[in-house]
């Protein structure tokens, strides 16, 4: 048992806020999931990005076979690189290994598609994808068109033979921010995952859009509709700066991922509307930095996303500033400060925070958070 293991809430006093971890899955270190269970985390999400990490489902299979309590899922799976029946089949296979404690995070593929120089799946296609996915994960037959052509009826032929488990439907958590994606999440999702720096007003508007999406298909958004936010954290030591070398080592990759996101939007049409006001000068410096990259412009996305959410290239350390940390909702502070941030977000309607630290520092960072934050929450 790891020393970071925390006490579970007493029976009848289960806390509402759940604490998860998003893992950049590395098949040679699948034991991280076992360690997360022993630390007391509620959920573990395996990132799905085919040009960056190990296969999420292969790593989840190892995690499922070697854990007993922690909930496991994708964070998030990418609609653009797998057919809906294949995604349903893959996650239902994991559910056979860990029945009832599996979930599916699913999105259009911001990073996984853009790291190949491709656009994420369009809203209309994503809606159809989720319709098919939800039906299959509920053991239903559904009409399906491959690439929009020739609709046929499909179903899992051997659902009771130990190949998959759809008897206990896998909940679908949709990564959604735009109005159409939010309505789709309400129509076909069991929850939503977003970035952690969203305001109360934005979260409320998102919930309204999802309720509208649910109503459009004759559904009422369930009371237990899950709301999770992807973030990162570092518990400061007494007198430590928010931008100390240790802090940047632990949270730098996730903070830098926002710069990657801003860069991708800028490449499409010069859009800078998502750049935080307090980071405008930083953004200008980062943009100038990317324009001097050695990789030709036509495939510069490869260099921009190098290390994405896993490690931080040395040349990018200077961009991890206090303004960027604050603008991206980073949970960086003393234990009491972090608990206060979490209480505020829980009051806004979030019921899970999932943390993504640098890969090399993950165990130390997450053990520290478990001991100093979760234990007192």
Describe, in plain words, how this protein is organized in 3D.
The structure is a single chain. The protein has 377 residues and is an alpha/beta fold. The chain folds into two domains: 18-233 and 331-376, Luciferase-like domain (TIM Barrel, Alpha-Beta Barrel); 245-325, no CATH class. It contains 13 helices and twelve strands. It has helices spanning 31-39, 56-65, 84-97, 110-114, 123-137, 179-188, 200-216, 245-269, 280-291, 301-304, 322-327, 335-347, 362-372; strands at 18-23, 43-46, 71-78, 102-107, 142-146, 149-154, 172-175, 191-195, 226-231, 233-235, 331-333, 352-355. The protein is globular, with a radius of gyration of 20 Å. The model is unreliable at 6-12 (pLDDT under 50).
Number of strand elements = 12
Element order: H for helix, E for strand: EHEHEHEHHEEEHEHEEHHHHEHEH
Sheet having the most strands: 8 strands, parallel, barrel
Count of helical stretches: 13
| CATH-scheme architecture of the largest domain | Alpha-Beta Barrel
Principal-axes geometry comes out as globular
How large is the share of residues in beta strands? Answer: 15-25%
Which range best describes the helical content: under 10%, 10-25%, 25-40%, 40-55%, 55-70% or over 70%? Answer: 40-55%
Q: What number of domains?
A: 2
CATH topology of the largest domain: TIM Barrel
Unreliable runs? 6-12
CATH class of the largest domain: Alpha Beta
Which whole number gives the mean pLDDT? 95
Distance between the termini: 22 Å
Summing up helix and strand content along with how strands pair, one would put the structural category as alpha/beta
In angstroms, what is the radius of gyration? Answer: 20 Å
In CATH terms, the superfamily of the largest domain is Luciferase-like domain
């Amino acid at each position: 048992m790891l020393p970071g293991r925390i006490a579970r809430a007493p029976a009848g006093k289960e806390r509402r806020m759940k604490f998860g971890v998003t893992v950049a899955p590395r098949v040679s270190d699948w034991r991280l999931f076992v360690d997360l269970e022993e630390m007391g985390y509620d959920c573990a999400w395996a990132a799905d990005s085919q040009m960056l990490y190990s296969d999420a489902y292969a790593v989840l299979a190892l995690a499922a076979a070697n854990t007993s309590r922690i909930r496991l899922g994708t964070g998030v799976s990418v609609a653009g690189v797998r057919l809906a029946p294949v995604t349903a089949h893959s996650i239902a296979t994991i559910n056979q290994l860990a029945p009832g404690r599996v979930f599916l995070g699913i999105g259009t593929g911001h990073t996984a598609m853009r790291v190949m120089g491709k656009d994420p799946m369009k809203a209309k296609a994503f809606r159809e994808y989720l319709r098919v996915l939800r039906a299959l994960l509920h053991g239903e037959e559904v009409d399906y068109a491959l690439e929009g052509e020739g609709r046929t009826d499909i179903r899992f032929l051997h659902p009771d033979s130990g190949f998959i488990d759809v008897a206990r439907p896998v909940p679908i958590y949709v990564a959604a921010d735009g109005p159409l994606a939010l309505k789709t999440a309400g129509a076909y999702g069991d929850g939503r995952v977003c970035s952690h720096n969203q305001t109360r007003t934005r979260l409320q508007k998102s919930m309204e859009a999802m309720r509208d999406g649910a109503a459009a298909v004759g559904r009422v958004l369930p009371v237990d509709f899950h709301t999770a936010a992807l973030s990162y954290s570092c518990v400061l030591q007494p007198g430590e700066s928010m931008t100390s070398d240790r802090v940047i080592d632990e949270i730098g990759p996730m903070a830098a991922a926002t710069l990657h996101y801003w860069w991708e939007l800028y490449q499409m049409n010069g859009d800078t509307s998502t750049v935080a006001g307090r980071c405008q000068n930083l953004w200008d410096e980062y943009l100038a930095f990317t324009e001097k990259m050695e990789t030709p412009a036509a495939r510069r996305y490869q260099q921009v996303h190098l290390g994405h959410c896993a490690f931080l290239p040395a040349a990018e350390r200077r961009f991890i500033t206090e303004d960027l940390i604050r603008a991206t909702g980073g949970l960086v502070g003393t234990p009491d400060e972090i608990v206060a941030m979490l209480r505020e977000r829980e009051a806004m309607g979030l019921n899970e925070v999932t943390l993504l630290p640098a890969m090399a520092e993950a165990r130390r960072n997450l053990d520290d958070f478990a001991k100093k934050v979760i234990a007192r929450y």
